[in-house]
Amino acid sequence: MAKILVIEDEAAIRRVLVKILSEENDAYEVYEAEDGLVGIEKIKKEDFDLVLCDIKMPKMDGVEVLEAVKKIKPEIPMVMISGHGDLDTAVNTMRLGAFDYISKPPDLNRLLNTVRIALDTKVLVVENKMLKKKVSKKYEMIGESDAITHIKDMIEKVSATDARVLITGPNGTGKELVAHWLHEKSDRAKGPLIEVNCAAIPSELIESELFGHVKGAFTSAVKDRAGKFEAANGGTIFLDEIGDMSLSAQAKVLRALQESRIQRVGNDKDIKVDVRVVAATNKDLKKEIAEGRFREDLYHRLAVILIKVPALNDRREDIPLLINHFLGKISEEQGTAKKEFSDKAIRLLQDYDWTGNIRELRNVVERLIILGEKEVSENDVKLFASK
What we know:
Pfam families: AAA_lid_14 (PF25601), Response_reg (PF00072), Sigma54_activat (PF00158)
Strand order of the largest sheet: 2-1-3-4-5
GO molecular function: ATP binding
Number of strands: 14
Strand content: 15-25%
Domain Sigma-54 factor interaction: 141-370
InterPro entries: AAA+_ATPase (IPR003593), AAA_lid_NorR (IPR058031), CheY-like_superfamily (IPR011006), P-loop_NTPase (IPR027417), Sig_transdc_resp-reg_receiver (IPR001789), Sigma_54_int (IPR002078), Sigma_54_int_dom_ATP-bd_2 (IPR025943)
Order of helices and strands: EHEHEHEHEHHEHEHHEHEEEHHEHEHHEH
Number of domains: 3
Keywords: ATP-binding, Nucleotide-binding, Phosphoprotein
């Protein structure tokens, strides 16, 4: 159940807001505070999903409340309530981190739409932060080869900037891992990292997924919905397999990069976004451009920095380190004692043709842990790691 706090010093308006929200959706649990100081105390004690806050109040005005909330619980979206004379201040609160503002007296549809979108965005951001906590230890770049050392050096140089990065390389080489490292080492690390697999989303839905939509934009659009670009505001959006994106969606992504603005499907209202774009592909985009499947202007926008992730066959000297890494991870996941690999077994694995790259190596290591002897031998590799 979504918990909403209404901070408003005018009792009549406060009661109206509480009544509207309570009656609109049984899933809303609505609380109220008569001024900013009371509101801040409640926010410290309770976990709210959304706060509606008046701007002009005694004791502590809405701008001060907004600044305090952004310090103590920055993940809570704040919607400001402005009187006619407060519009300039309301617009300024957006620069300070407010999600949106609504004017007095509140328009019913505008209020409810803003609340729904703010709550949808909060869910996306929180889910992403939870995922990030789970995977931060998972995403390590293992290797000491010249190729991997070069990538690490590039990440160190590039991560502190907002330069767009295009990551290329075959499937299974670790392009997603590079994107995570870029984000986690950047100044945007406290913001969200939103991942979009362009190949996994049907072409007719990709624009809605990226930019959101308004109610009625298409048959299944039963309510307004924020897209991934809005969810990534202040952070990074990772467009994986961008070579599979439709030309129509490419045009909209290009506009977003040029103007830092997007439009939801079914609406012509511009929404300003502050997002760093990192993209990845296993395709030869120059070939795709020549064949009319990818926009050249978008390519040049994305490829400010190019990072090429090598195939595992081109960094065989890293295989012993990768095997040891996977041994620890898989043993921990399965709750079993860590096995050892004989030197001959490792050398044999280094000679294999790894067409599936690191992903294939991990699968083989897991198979050998399950089927091999206490110390995985050369014979085990010949028996269980064969193609």
